[in-house]
Structures are given as structure tokens and as C-alpha cells.
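Margin note: ligand = adenosine monophosphate.
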Amino acid sequence: MSAPEAPADCIFCKIVAGEIPATVVHESETAVAFRDLNPQAPTHVLVIPRSHYENAAALAAAEPATVADLVAAATAVAEADGLDEQYRLVFNTGAAAGQTVFHAHLHVLGGRSMTWPPG
Ligand code: AMP
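Resulting structure:
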């Protein structure tokens, strides 16, 4: 199954295509990881699929193996940043949950203590 057509203005598709700069820390055949522009923790990396899906659920329905690839990439990023298996993975899904970019992305947050529940 091929990915749905991405909106022409998708900023994360542009990062995948190398059309806008990002601090890329990890790449695989299916995923790209780069530092968040507005970090909420000492490590704040976004791991995104190369193909465009609006959110994690749509990605999981169409390309379940790529979801596992995102988690594997997140693990590699956490290891490279020395997070010692102490980090948070987040998929914000929908505006009410805080999603602002509608290309699926996995937040990797670490390097400080965190509280629960999140805001
Ligand atoms: P979310 O609110 O879950 O949709 O997360 C979107 C994230 O993308 C936010 O944490 C933004 O700071 C981040 N972001 C937006 N544009 C860029 C960009 N060009 N490079 C890196 N991070 C970005």
C-alpha cells in the first residue's frame, strides 16, 4: 500500500526531502530523527516516518512495521544521548492532545526528571 499524498506544505515531509534544515541525529530506510526546534527537555528528538501519515494510528494501520522502526530509532537516539534507559516516548494525536504538526512523529524526551500526568 502506498502512503497517502502529503499536503504540499508539510514541514516534516520537507525535512525528509532535505528541503529545510534540521539537526538530524539518526536515519534509517523508513525513519528520520532530528532535534526539536523548541526542546522541552535536554534531549528532545522527533522520530518521523519518511512516508506521510497524519498521525501514529494512520501509520500503524498502513505500515505497522514502520511503527516498530520508529521505536527502534528512538531507542538508538536515547542510547546515543546517554539517557540510560530513562526517557519518555510520546505520540500526540489530534489537536486536543497537543498535536500541531500533522505528519506522524514520535517525541523522545529525556535528560531530566518528569512528572505525571502530563499537562
Ligand atoms: P506536536 O505538537 O506533537 O505536533 O509536535 C510538533 C513538534 O514539532 C513541536 O515540538 C515543535 O517544536 C516541533 N517542530 C516544528 N517545526 C519544527 C522544525 N522545523 N524542526 C524541528 N522541530 C520542529
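The longest strand covers residues 43-49.
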